[in-house]
Amino acid sequence: MDAAAAELGTVGTQDAPAVELRGLSVSFMSERREVVALEDITFSLEPGSFLTLLGPSGCGKSTLLRVIADIVQPRTGTVRVFGRPPIEARKRREIGFVFQDATLLPWRSAIDNVRLPLQVGGGAQGARSAGDLLALVGLAGWENALPHELSGGMRQRVAIARALLCGPKILLMDEPFGALDEITRDRLNAELLTIWRETGTTILFVTHSIHEAAFLGQQVLMLAARPGRVREMIRIDLPEPRALAIRDTAPFGVLSARLRAVLETC
Amino acid sequence: MDAVSRIDASVAQAAAPTDAHAVWLAGQRWLRWKRLLLPLVGAASLLFVWWALVAVLQVKPFIAPAPQVVAVTLWQKADILLANLEPTVIEAVSGFLIGNFCAIALATLFVHRKSIEMAFLPIVVLLNSIPVVAKAPILVLLLGNGFSPKIAIAAIICFFPTLVNMVRGLEAVSPQALELMHVLSASKWEIFTRLRLQSSVPYLFAALKISASAAVVGAIVGEWIGSQEGIGALIIQATYAFDSALLYATVICGSTFSVLFYLTIKLLERLCVRWVPPATG
Fold first, then answer.
1. Is A167 within 8 Å of A147 (Cβ atoms)?
2. What is the DSSP annotation of B153-176?
3. Complex confidence, ipTM
């Protein structure tokens, strides 16, 4: 065990940060050449907070989420999720993941898709019933619909309900609304904030929309590309709870302009 | 205005429409009838051409029969035809079941042990390129003269398309779905049963539909070589006896079975795949 890991400890505690990264680097092999996806990422995140990750394509935003979810292994550095290594957090069902594509199993009805986490990985307990969760994401009455009968927005709602089933302490969202039209995306943004307040879960949300990043996040982590590294952590001081109309106010305009200015230097 | 739309317009007028909507509705009704009737008209006209050619050119009965003679033969020799159909059905269906079972099992192994796939898939492709007619005598020598060589040939024919499609189907899982299963800590077995197997079902049925017809071909080709019974044997006997009417009736009998076999698989597919697959749908 290296020094950083020893310092962080491996036993989760209540006061441990939701996510703590120290000197994280990730590389991929591409045609016998090492490509550095992330370099020396260090930051920590308090439990219950909402962080958006913003950066140009190729800055490793998605890779960062995948390291936290134990999908990708880092080359160097330490990762702790509520004080534990990601693999433990994953096995304790503390991590919920929402992909850009809803990734529903097309042969299962909406409610059976939500129940999938109970049927694999050694019989976890659902924190809430699948029916309640479908109602929470606004899909009451659609329990038995097959994915191809749902719109893109509705499919993504099912994916969110599925990610929430085991009551995750942290929800990782990888451009979940990127493929949706603007009207649907706005509505889901507003609903996601409601869900966040209601469940109290920590959310890491990857986006390439400045407006989405500023509207949703309490903080925005700006990443620069090639190699992916932390550019700046920007606090979003907008009043809570936020409604969509906040995007028409002057402070929101100032914040977006600042994010845009930083993004241009990434 | 072309001929078809002129007919459409006249039919619509014959229905005494009072407004444009009624004209449109009548047109749609006529379109539905056309879809139903035109294939029948096509078949009937081909039968007529056949009959006319035989009658006008005075084709000798041992060269080619007239359609009505074939129809009579089908009726009069129904017992011989059915007696010979039975072994062919047994061979084709057994071969279908055995060949597809082996293909699915091997595809499962390939997907889980990449090194086995790398070692054996090229050989499988090579073996597949040998024509059935060339494989058949080898199998007859190996397996003797009973049911077994025919079943083996039918099985081998079914085996290859299913193997290739099943490997494709089992691997046609999106990387995100695999990541999802990983986040959910699913075991390899769970990924196989809950994800791979299910998403391969449309690919499997595409292969089963091909192999349903192919199994019949395999059984018939097997019967060509030193067999006393079966549709294939009857084809050979009728040919050497210059009994063209029996030959045609036998071919019709065999293809009817082939079509029914295919339709059965298609019906099964309807029952099993109610969801629309993401890419192939």
1. no
2. HHHHHHHHHHHHHHHHHHH---HH
3. 0.89
Asked if A266 reaches chain B (Cβ–Cβ under 8 Å), the answer is: no
Task: Return the percent helix, strand and coil in chain A, to nearest 5.
Answer: 35, 25, 40
For A41-86, how does the pLDDT look when each residue is reduced to its tens digit (9 = 90+)? Answer: 999 999 999 999 999 988 889 999 999 999 999 999 999 999 999 9
User: Using a CB-CB distance cutoff of 8 angstroms, which residues of chain A are in contact with residue B198?
Assistant: 105, 107
From B180, B187, B276, residue closest to A103, measured CB to CB: B180
Q: Are B183 and A148 inside 8 Å of each other by CB? A: no
| 8 A C-beta contact, residue A96 and residue A173 | no
Reported pTM: 0.79
* Residues of chain B contacting residue A106, judged by C-beta atoms under 8 Å apart: 199, 275-278
Question: How many Cα atoms sit within 13 Å of A54 on the Cβ side?
Answer: 31
CB contact under 8 A, A120 and B181: yes
- Partners of A209 in beta bridges: none
Number of H helices, E strands in chain B: 12, 0
What tokens does B139 get?
A: 């199998």
Rounded alpha-carbon distances, angstroms, from residue A212 to A65, A191, A219, A247, B158: 17, 13, 12, 10, 54
Asked if B184 has any chain A CB less than 8 Å from its own CB, the reply is: yes
Q: Which residues contact A241 (CB under 8 A, 6 or more apart)?
A: A193, A197
Instruction: List CB contacts of B50: < 8 A, sequence separation 6 or more.
Output: B66, B67
Neighboring chain B residues of A117 at a CB cutoff of 8 Å: 184
